[in-house]
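User: Can you help me understand a structure? I only have the sequence.
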Amino acid sequence: AAGEAPAESPQKPKGPVGPISMRDLIDAGMHFDHRTKRWNPKMRPYIYGTRSGIHIIDLQQTLPLFRKAYRFISEVVGHGHHVLFVGTKKQAQEIVAEEAGRASMHYVNTRWLGGTLTNYDTIKKSLDRLKDTERRQADGSFADLKKKEQLKIEKERERIEKNLLGIKQMTALPGALFVVDPENEENAVREARRLGIPVVALLDTNCDPDLADYPVPGNDDAMRSIRLVTAKIADACIEGQARRREYAAGKHDKTDDFVAAPSTGSGPPVEYAARRGRGGGPPRGGRRRPEDSGR
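Assistant: Let's start by predicting it. Here is the structure, written out as tokens:
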């Protein structure tokens, strides 16, 4: 109609869009991995062979595992939870921030602070101090403090913002973690498993696949492969948000999407589809209580 502002077009992802294909995986170099000296024997089932002393990942296995992880993430978000993106290695930092932001999800891309999940109440207090400082700077009350006190508070604000910027608006534990290189993010994975929060992970041959509930074997060092997987996980989150709106409007039945599984514990309640052929039981490392709730 005349006089109305044009509707904003959705922000286009910088990564690949649409259903994942074998060509996408190959073009991103997902099959190239570490030298054969650097590997975890548990990754043997996912290795196709070697070439010039380098392991080649079997993409015929990666493809269905990737699609399974995609569907799970979409379901988690569709049922009202959020996904925490974690990638602190240099190659992943910018990508993780961009794609998590595109999907309106939270992220950690600089340094994982111990207790980010298991001691979230303390982390939240730091975030509250950060927000309070920003409020005082905005309303002018910050100027009433002595210069030395201002410098001290500003230094603390910068420190908190550097490490916690990506979870600044997070008000509850996530429904799932997406991790780039669980070997590098072992503290994040350990905390998630302790709380029973499912982990979706891009991992290569030096990682332990048993630490991820939804492993995606592939090159976790090259920016192209990190971009591919992270962008598709962000797409799954966006798809889940659309599904959530359908649920709210009564256009879709939640029970059509899940293989339900009983679970209890300190993380947010999520129903789990069967994973890795082990049935639909709760993830390893924790239990859920039905009364717990998340975003």
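Now, to help you interpret it: Residues 1-10, 13-18, 258-295 have pLDDT under 50 and may be disordered. The helical segments are 22-27, 59-78, 90-102, 120-139, 147-164, 186-195, 223-248. Let me know which part you'd like to focus on.
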